[in-house]
UniProtKB/TrEMBL annotation:
Domain of life: Bacteria
SUPFAM superfamilies per record: CBS-domain pair, MgtE N-terminal domain-like, PRC-barrel domain
Protein's UniProt keywords contain Secreted: no
Keywords, comma-separated and alphabetical: CBS domain
The CBS domain, residue ranges: 285-352, 354-412
GO cellular component entries: membrane
A Pfam family assignment: SH3_actinomycetes
Name assigned to this protein: Magnesium transporter
GO molecular function, one term: magnesium ion transmembrane transporter activity
CDD domains on file: CBS_pair_Mg_transporter
């Protein structure tokens, strides 16, 4: 038995999907419909489910036994685990229908904010309603939400959906609360037109976080879509090592223009990273680890570690150097592991708990050397210093994994790992 007979699609996004025995399968990401040439309600074909491995598969509606406000349940039997590929005349409701402009019977225009599917007497699901906002004055589509029958609006045929420019406010709202890596995976699955619209709608900081999680080809695709001024702003918002990796894949002319458009203080660390080969410690490192002077207290170190913008790997270690404390720093003195920080009195100085024996990586250390280093010392973060003992940056284990995995690992997920 299906728990409800009518479901609004935007509310499905992110819901957990369970197998027949109650085991978690993944999350609902979208609904696939087959649009008609006329205005009759389209048939709902199935649901796109993202497995725990991040692979997206198609599940026919007949394979769903329950669609509830808080979860989706699959029927017994096998499910095709091949990656989902959108076919001709198939449309993703969340990915392509939300934010579409429609024409109402009175000739006015509205924008779709949600759509509802309903179970018919023949046990088929049909897309029967659209929730939309009409334009109010000069301030865009800010009016109250109204619900219309699918057949009473125009603009939702397959050709109209594919051809019209859309906003992306509703889709961006669906992405709120999702991890940047999950948003990146969702963007990869969207048609290029829709992917560009979402990129235009995301703010710089959010888009920078998402781009860092995209495959190389998707990164270049989005960056080439943006005007150069905004592309430079996005690069400034990215971690310098990720920005350097992306710039390194562009033509020399494009790279130079974007670097010139960046603020000098933002482009300087990126330029330094570009001097190293991408598969060396210098090319892998971030120039912005946690750096303190020796007169800093344990309490100050812990406060820096608590920064939510730091990755767990970067937050695992604090580096202590003579001034200046920006890379390249003054003389490198040693590091303090977070476990040690947690065991010491907050008022003590970091200089008293330094690990001075940990081997440092030179910037020209190869990828294999860096990999062996992490395996030898069981670390997730390591210092990179030059011959004069200046700290240049830190390599984290996630940077190493990015270069050890196959080039298309972000697209294939974890299923072949």
């Amino acid at each position: 038995m299906v728990a409800v007979n009518r479901v609004y699609i935007a509310q499905l996004a992110g819901l957990p999907v369970f197998g027949p025995d109650g085991e978690p399968i993944g999350k609902a990401r979208d609904v696939v419909i087959s649009l008609r040439i006329d205005r009759q309600p389209p048939r709902v074909l199935g649901m796109v489910v993202e497995l725990v491995t991040r692979r997206r598969i198609f599940v026919p509606m007949l394979r769903l036994t329950s669609v509830e406000p808080n979860a989706v349940t699959l029927a017994t039997g096998s499910v095709n685990l091949r990656p989902f590929h959108q076919r001709v005349n198939e449309v993703l409701v969340i990915g392509e229908v939300l934010d579409a402009k429609i024409q109402l019977e009175d000739g006015s225009t509205a924008v779709v904010v949600d759509a509802a599917m309903e179970l018919t007497r023949t046990r088929d699901w049909r897309m029967i309603k659209v929730a939309a906002r009409q334009r109010t004055g000069r301030f865009g589509f800010k009016g109250p939400t109204q619900v219309f029958r699918w057949e009473d609006v125009g603009g939702l045929s397959v050709n109209e959906i594919a051809g019209q420019p859309q906003g992306a406010q509703q889709l961006v709202a669906v992405f709120e609360g999702m991890r940047a890596a999950d948003v990146a995976h969702a963007l990869h699955e969207l048609p290029a037109k829709r992917r560009h619209e979402v990129a235009d709608a995301l703010d710089d900081e959010r888009l920078a976080d998402v781009i860092e999680e995209l495959s190389e080809e998707d990164q270049k695709d989005i960056l080439s879509h943006l005007d150069e001024e905004r592309a430079a702003d996005i690069l400034e918002a990215m971690n310098p090592d990720d920005a350097a990796d992306l710039l390194g894949e562009l033509s020399e002319g494009t790279k130079d223009r974007l670097l010139e458009l960046m603020e000098p203080e933002e482009s300087a660390p990126v330029r330094r990273l570009l001097e190293y080969s991408f598969d060396t410690a210098g090319g892998l490192m971030t120039p912005e680890p946690i750096i303190l002077t020796p007169d800093a207290t344990i309490a100050e170190a812990l406060a820096r570690v608590r920064n939510p913008d730091l990755t767990p790997a970067l937050a695992s270690m604090v580096f202590v150097c003579r001034s200046p404390s920006a890379t390249p720093t003054g003389r490198y003195l040693g590091c303090v592991h977070i476990q040690r920080l947690l065991r010491e009195p907050p008022s003590d100085l970091v200089a008293g708990v330094l690990d001075t024996s940990l081997v440092r990586l030179p910037p020209d250390a190869s990828l294999s050397d860096v990999t062996r280093y992490f395996a030898t010392y069981n670390l997730v973060c390591a210092p990179v210093t030059d011959e004069a003992e200046h700290l240049l940056g830190a390599v984290t284990v996630d940077d190493v994994l990015d270069h050890l995995l196959p080039a298309n690992w972000r697209e294939t997920g974890l299923s072949h790992a």
